[in-house]
Design a protein that fits this description.
Length: 144
């Protein structure tokens, strides 16, 4: 996704946390960021870097052009430094992203996938995974 290609790992991670979990409490935001880093650690089909994992098609709904969050993320991507100063929620997401990347923030889950608890029916992939947590409005899973 060209619009996001010049952003740092911290900015991409913060955008994803913002797009997927800005309505969650602090732990819920950390948990979504943790899923992304857990996927990076796997270095598998989901990607080997934060950008690859976050921007892989159909993995995080906030980056789908049809998602209502997509234009919001595009706007932030055009001025991420400005958003860090004027948008308190994005600033929190960025601080979480930096903390997770540096190791100063502990990961909140060992999960590699999640979905909202309100999703009915649950996505088909959930039946093939092990449920590990429910944090906020998300249910978290890991492979195996």
């Amino acid at each position: 996704m060209k619009a996001f290609s010049d952003l740092s790992d911290a900015e991409i991670l913060a955008l994803t946390i913002y797009g997927e979990a800005r309505g969650e409490d602090y732990l819920g935001k950390v948990a979504v960021g943790s899923v992304i880093l857990n996927r990076v650690d796997l270095k598998g089909w989901q990607g080997k870097t934060v950008s690859e994992v976050c921007l892989k098609p159909y993995q995080f709904s906030c980056f789908l052009k049809s998602d209502p969050n997509y234009p919001i993320l595009l706007g932030i991507a055009q001025d991420p430094q400005g958003e860090r100063t004027k948008n308190r929620t994005f600033q929190t997401c960025y601080e979480i992203a930096e903390g997770l990347l540096s190791g100063a923030e502990a990961r909140a889950t060992e999960a590699t996938s999640y979905h909202t608890a309100s999703m009915k029916p649950f996505p088909p992939w959930a039946a093939k995974m092990t449920r590990v947590d429910k944090i906020g409005r998300h249910i978290f899973y890991r492979e195996g």
